[in-house]
Amino acid sequence: MSNRLINWFKFASPATFYPLAGKMIPWFVALSVLFGIAGLYLGMFVAPTDFQQGEGYRIIFIHVPASWMSMFIYLVMAFWAALGLAFNTRLSGMMATALAPTGALMAFLSLWTGALWGKPMWGTWWVWDARLTSELILLFLYIGFIALQSAIDDPRRADKAGAVLALVGVVNIPIIYFSVKWWNTLHQGASVSLTKSPSMAVTMLWAMLLVALCFWMYTIAVALARARNIMLERERHTEWVRALLAQPKP
Fold first, then answer.
1. What is the residue range of 191's domain?
2. Is residue 6 part of a domain?
3. Phi/psi at 53 (nearest 5 deg)?
């Protein structure tokens, strides 16, 4: 057991994690494409037309998975940031930094598709609804995290400052999730619940889950690729990066 832990701990070093990430990226890209094609095909062509909202409801197959991922990525980013803050590991800060832009993209996609959905349903692009407002705050947290790290020249200090902001911002995640229960809002309740049977057609549910998996695989692939670039930038003066850059390119 201890030998296995030691083997896993060795990947906490950028020098050993870099080649591992390079091997994993193509697999996650392929999975993202497969899940995306399957999910969008089910959602756009197989799932039945909603009896209340017509064909316009199909935007949920992008909106709901993007909303899920915007919250999930923030929690993962905060976890890596906390790990780096607690154990002062270089890789943890790099992973948190690598996840932030994709999290911001998912939050923006959630808000944008929500506006497109809200216009025909509510008659307006935007309302200061509890869930919409807290999701907007989440986007600002991502942008603030990125801006704060960019404003500090020393990467280790930037990681620590970003980690504090990320951990403070975690309180917003349950507010987003429970906002429709805590306040009287225009936004509908959760599309999928762990404690209740789904109220939608099975094909709708599978389409949303497959697109969510697509976004998840995409996030991992892009974060690993971005982390590799961050490693090369931050570790450029180390022996392993110099040796890597000295290797002849195929």
1. 19-233
2. no
3. -100, -5
